[in-house]
Here is the input.
Amino acid sequence: MSKLFKLASLVAVAAMILSACGGGGAKADNLLDDIKQRGYILVSTDVNYEPQSFLNTEGKRPDDTKCPTDALTTAEVQGFDIDVAKAIGDGLGVETCFATPSWDVITAGNWANKWDVSVGSMTITVARQEVLDFSAPYYFSPAVVAVKADSGFTSIDDLAGQALCAGTATTYDYWLNNDMEGLGLPASSIYSKVPAGVTVVTLETDQECAQAIASGREDFVGYVTSSTVVDANIAADMPVMKLGSAVYSEELAAAFDKSSSLPTASLVEAVNAIIAKLHADGTLSAVSTQWFGMDLTQDPNK
Here is the structure.
């Protein structure tokens, strides 16, 4: 047998092996099919945002995971957003994995295909819709102002001229800066004006604002975040309290990068169908009650 014939035979055998393993299949022409071919969906989330998303210190990475080595598995994180993301992965028939980029990078769009979707309690805003597509909301959260429990403040108006903290590029940041275009919420969802003369201090996440106050930082007197985050802060024995009632209400949804190199329309449609089912069968209500102690999946403006 000639060397050339032997080489041709080896190439043919290798091609058959690759075809049997799926390696010879056609490359996906949309993100949904690409996700299904690889067997996992990569979700961006913030793991310093309890109870929505935080590290599971007792979780062990499974040996048989399909997740990339630099991504987290569902065993290594926990929280409301994590459970929603896992339900989306289950609905697509794939494993759910997590990336942890900074919040301002996620909201800026142009993800360079580094992750597939954000399931990280992102509020739908007009500004974000310029670079991101959104699913239907999977829950609704009131935004509140929190201060030290012994601060002596009794109303939001008492904070006039004070410094308040918010996470960079969050709706809380927009609200404090009176940036209604950036906030991008309907007037019916905004319940309170910003106190006069407020100075805004931003940290990478609003949870860091709470942690800074708990550690004794004194260059701001309070922070703006989701009511659920303040509830978790109080449950963790942080010396904080909510000041007054909600200042606005947010619609939280999954987000998709408009600049993805693969079309995302079919993925958005599939995720919307999954979220609709999770609403209809009570799964979202149950998960919300588990993590928040209340059902936040019903639109407060309806």
In short: The CA atoms of residues 126 and 184 lie 5 Å apart. The longest strand covers residues 240-257. The chain has two domains: 26-139+252-292, 142-250. Confidence is low (pLDDT under 50) at residues 1-24.
